[in-house]
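User: structure tokens for this one?
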Amino acid sequence: MKSSKKAPRALTNQDIHELSVKIGRNQKALDQVDDVARILHDNEQNLKDLGGLKHRLNTLDTIMVTVDKIAGSIQTYQREQGVQQSIKGSSG
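Assistant:
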């Protein structure tokens, strides 16, 4: 039995040029994929950083609420002391 395979033909300059163009397009596509991967990685890191920042802001908010409560308690105490001093001063 004879093989029905044909001998490969020689590449022409046109074939080489077409392959070169395809390789160039593929390289550009790979470069774009690399760029997208870098952007995704940067965005992922930024999201992690924002998560940490959100936690720090929540902690700071809790601290500020506590400071406001303490300041309010101090003002109340000072008013009460002033009232008591007024009472002592007027009865003495």
